[in-house]
Amino acid sequence: MKKIAHFFGFLFLVxxxxxxxxxxxVSENLKILEPLLNKTWAGELxxxxxxxxxxxxxxxxxxxxxxxxxxxxxxxxxxxxSEGYFYWDRAEQKIAVLIVNNNGxxxxxxxxxxxxxxxxxxxxxxxxxTFEFKNTFEFTPDGKMIDRWxxxxxxxxxxxxxxEFTSMGNE
Length: 171
Fold this sequence. Notes:
Radius of gyration: 19 Å
Helix content: 10-25%
Distance between the termini: 38 Å
Largest sheet: 10 strands, antiparallel, barrel
Number of strands: 10
Strand order of the largest sheet: 1-2-3-4-5-6-7-8-9-10
């Protein structure tokens, strides 16, 4: 009987520790990214004129005891795949991000919360030019994520894509 009590006590302890581990998804410095985590976000990327659209997915996962958030993005019909990392930049004292794309594109920037919206500001480098961008992620009460892109590739700031993502559930 004593062995059974110890066994159930052990199971209870494992369950409590597992719950505490899951509650702490990321380090304190990366907490603002928690709404993105452990979901596959699916949406539709539209061409600038609206005549075409492509299915796109984004995933965000905490790694290394929550000190890094890995990003993976895919738009198969456009042969576009991206991977990157969000991390705490100790020198700048803010969240930094580096994302690379299979088509020779990469972007770097910093993350903040502006008006309750996760915002990335930085530079994007194509093989032929580099310019500034702003990318925002807003979460709606019905569980959607609205991804808005802005850039100054041609001088003045212009709005780009708007993608409404739906969570496909926890991984």
